[in-house]
Design brief:
Length: about 325
């Protein structure tokens, strides 16, 4: 699928994300009984509350309150247009990307001629991306074009090995497939660095992981992610790996030894817990706090109570699905 097809399919899917209603406030789904009745939003699971046996829509207002993030309002969009000279992207105007942390600080830097970079990622849990995975990359391409800045893309194949039970060979092959599909979006090759954690770990990148890890206790990750004594140590350690690309010194080939260049992270709102922790630790590491733009979940074909997911093939439209397969999925599940 080429750049034009990827963007068109992603734009069509984005229209389906408008007007999502809200349900009961989010709770802490820490056990099976709670998970049956309360909304669950973690980096690994997303599901709306269940009320009287009916799954409700994702409650984004509850997420906003729980995470302490801010809506992208009209005033911020107007400032975006004034600073960049570009009308905000369709995804911003329609609220597909709708909340943020410190986006105004990135606009300030751009206005002052100071550098920043973009950071996003992909967890290669399946052989091909689905439409929901493509949305942030389409948005990132636009941001790269508008700001003319570097982009780093982390492929978290190690995370999928630790959290999804896949083999090393499977997750690495999935990463290779992801590179081709991400490249098809049309990023600037000279300003884009896509890397697999399995390949890139080491050097300045690993040094920052160690610096981060020494600043974070088990109590903190337990409170942030719900880990417990039965959680494998690889999962407990992983937040430092996802945090590392938010520190510019992790990429000396791009930024040299500088520590004063922040990043803007477009991501699904379920990834915010990682970066709340990153922002807390960044100051102690003498780096700039990352800024974030949060996106909505692309609903599963079955409805707005959950998101498209690679682990449930019937919930999603994948980039390698044929026209006949897409038609069959929509007729059967949508």
């Amino acid at each position: 699928m080429d750049q034009k097809d990827s963007s068109a399919l992603a734009d069509t899917a984005a229209k389906e994300m408008q007007g999502l209603s809200v349900a009961d406030p989010a709770g802490n789904a820490s056990d099976k009984q709670q998970a049956k009745t309360e909304q669950v939003v973690t980096p690994w699971d997303v599901a709306g509350a269940v009320v009287d046996g009916v799954q409700m829509n994702i409650d984004y207002d509850a997420i906003k309150r729980s995470f302490g993030i801010h809506h992208i309002d009209e005033a911020l969009l107007e400032r975006f247009e004034k600073v960049t000279g570009h009308k905000p992207h369709l995804y911003l105007r329609r609220g597909v990307f709708f909340m943020h942390r410190d986006l105004e600080k990135i606009l300030d830097r751009h206005e002052q001629g100071k550098p920043f970079y973009l950071y996003t990622g992909r967890g290669p849990s399946s052989g091909h991306m689905h439409v929901g995975h493509v949305l942030p990359f389409v948005f990132c391409k636009w941001l790269q074009d508008v700001f003319d800045v570097p982009l780093v893309v982390q492929l978290t194949d190690d995370e999928k090995f630790l959290f999804r039970g896949l083999t090393i060979d499977e997750v690495y092959q999935n990463s290779l497939n992801a590179v081709r599909e991400i490249a098809a979006v049309g990023f600037k090759p000279e300003k884009t660095f896509i890397f697999s954690n399995l390949d890139y770990m080491g050097g300045a990148f690993y040094r920052n992981i160690l610096q981060f890890s020494r600043q974070v206790t088990f109590s903190q990750v337990k409170g942030t992610f719900g880990f417990n004594e039965s959680t494998c140590i690889g999962r407990i350690h992983f937040p430092g790996i996802q945090a590392a690309p938010a520190f510019c010194s992790s990429f000396p080939e791009i930024f040299g030894t500088r520590k004063d260049i922040p990043c803007l992270i477009p991501c699904g709102v379920d990834q915010d817990p990682y970066f709340r922790l990153t922002r807390d630790v960044s100051v102690r590491m003498k780096h700039k706090k990352p800024s974030l733009i949060h996106g909505r979940f692309l609903p599963a074909l079955q409805g707005t109570g959950s998101k498209m997911g690679s682990s449930i093939p019937s919930s999603a439209i994948f980039m390698d699905d044929t026209a006949a397969k897409i038609k069959n999925k929509i007729n059967r599940y949508a």
